[in-house]
Amino acid sequence: MKHNKKINRNGLAVLAIGILSSSPLVMSATYDQLNLQQKHFNEIDQIAPLNNESGSSPSMLDSLQQAEVNNKKSSYREVLNLLKQNKLKNARDKISALLKKTPGDSEFYNLQALLETLEKNTFAAQQSYQKALQLNPKNILAYLGIAKINLEAGEMDKAKDYANKALAINNKIIGAYLLLADIANKQKNNIEVESVLLTAHEKVKGDITSEIEVIKNLGKFYAVQKQPEKIQLLSEDLVKRYPNNSQAMSVLAGVQIVNDKKALAEQTLRQIIDQEKHDTNHRLLLAKLLSEQPDKEKEVLKLLDEASKIEPNNPQALVFKTAYLIKLQRYPEASELANKTETLFPKLVLGKLLKGDVFLAEKKLDKALESYQQAYKTQPNDKVLFTIVDIMNAQKKSPEAIKFLDKALEKNPKNGAIHFKLAVVYQQLNDNPKAENHYQAILAGQPDNVLALNNLAWLYVQRNNPQAIELAKKAYAKSPESAAIADTYGYILVKQGQAVEGLTVLEKAASLAPAANDIQFHLAEAYAANNNRSKAVEILETLAKAGQDFSEKKAALNLLDTLKPN
Fold first, then answer.
1. Which domains does the chain have, with CATH numbers?
2. Confidence band, pLDDT 50/70/90 cuts, at residue 27
3. How confident is the model at residue 251, as a pLDDT?
């Protein structure tokens, strides 16, 4: 079954919220190695104010030494901030000056290695880390840096060795455990991933910040394993050991939400808000939970207004409030708030996006299109691009939509998402050869792209291309729990004469998406191909009585006429 997305005219202003969460104008970029440096900045801070055991006034020498330490820490922070802002040239100039002044300082070689990593010069970065180790064999950050480089290069044994060397110096270093867990994950050793993270949790007990970081990583792991209940006990224990600690309660609230214990999550969030009078994040989270309930309108709006008042320079509350008003179909208020957001934050595109969301909800497609195009011109973004294209398609302006996508693709020819969108548009126009070209372009750079494999297989089977089964089988192997992908593979198996195997796969697809009429039709075809006419007729009669349209309904009714006894 091919994957298509229809334009959403009644959503919770998903576009503006999505841009808010991903925009570099709102959230600064992060780098793994940069985070690693930041986490271990305490190594610099451990060069603490010198203890004067006699209790007398510090000597001139003590004062000079302390000034030197403070200067070093200040320089280190300055370089990290430059790297965070991606001001790589300025950072290099600063690092060069520092190394020229103090060539024997291993920490500055760590910074140089980080810079070289961000510049994608991993060979030079590894040399800099090795130089840091020559100057200080107990430089934990250098060991972790080399481990990370080897991990990304696929040298798992070397990465593991360097991470363990860091732990041999200090067995409470979280970064080393996270690297070891990442190595085990890449080796598909889930037992080892869990073991490493649980060991880390035991080692850092007593340090709430470190405990929380480990628990969050365990939570991500258990979520992927579909075992979110496993993190529940750890988060509850954390709160017991750190009662009334807002950080601990925040972790618990997140775990309660993941485990669908929303009533308990509400209670926990209210506790945090009661304690933290100037907290906005948990007010927003509580507002999101309550917004799912029809009788909580006043409280949701109150929480959002409080968040805006606490942080007037943070647009998140305004964005969410506008989205919520759209959900409530209070369009004039939503429009007024969108205009206010644009006035308060003229350098951001959020106001224009919100105006587009309001117009879209009101089905004023021309005005929505104009607002989104203004936003896209200021800040090009695939989400905005595809919404513009969806509106053009809804207005029967497919040639304009294709032209708009082609122009974007010229600027970024390897953008798989744009290729995919173009392929889908061409499919909707029944121009399958051009759709195939774009799916093939995706697979040239991403040979394991499941959706491209699936959709290209679907196109191939329409013209009896024998490659269809190979592509569908590969997509199914990559994503066996996707109903759409199982449907494509099962359908092709049946069409190519493997009716028994196809029926098995289509039964699975139907169990994954029992309400999908097209999958039910394909299942009926599979039963008919396996000479189980009664089962096929039963499904087809249900489809006929349902009264719901789907793309292959006419074919389903024709098959029913063929199979029913005269």
1. 483-566 (1.25.40.10)
2. very low
3. 93
Going by the DSSP 8-state scheme, the letter that residue 413 receives in this structure is T
Residues 6+ apart with CB under 8 A from 373: 388
**To which residue do tokens 């029944």 refer?**
430
For the record, the structure tokens of 261 come out as: 């214990």
| Per-residue pLDDT at 77 | 83
Q: How far apart are CA 60 and CA 502, in angstroms?
A: 85
C-beta of residue 4 within 8 angstroms of C-beta of residue 348: no
Query: Which pLDDT score is estimated for 41?
Result: 47
| Continuous segment of H or E residues that includes residue 532 | none
391 CB contacts (<8 Å, ≥6 apart)? Answer: 7, 360, 365, 368, 369, 372
For residue 47, with 0-12 CB atoms within 10 Å meaning exposed, 13-18 middle and 19 or more buried, which class applies?
Answer: middle
Mean per-residue pLDDT over the chain, rounded: 86
pLDDT in tens, 475-517: 999 999 999 999 999 999 999 999 999 999 999 999 999 989 9
Half-sphere exposure of 510 (CA within 13 A, CB side): 20
Q: In whole angstroms, how large is the CA radius of gyration of the chain? A: 29
Separation between Cα atoms, residue 560 and residue 538, nearest integer Å: 9
- The Cβ of residue 143 has, within 10 Å, a number of other Cβ atoms equal to 27
What's the one-letter identity of residue 451? L
Contacts of 450 (CB under 8 A, 6+ apart): 475, 478, 479, 482, 485
Residue type, 507: E
CA 23 to chain centre: 13
CB atoms within 10 A of CB 480: 13
Q: Around Cβ 240, how many Cβ atoms within 10 Å?
A: 9
pLDDT tens sequence across 193-215: 999 999 999 999 999 989 999 99
List of residues 6+ apart from 565 with CB closer than 8 A: none
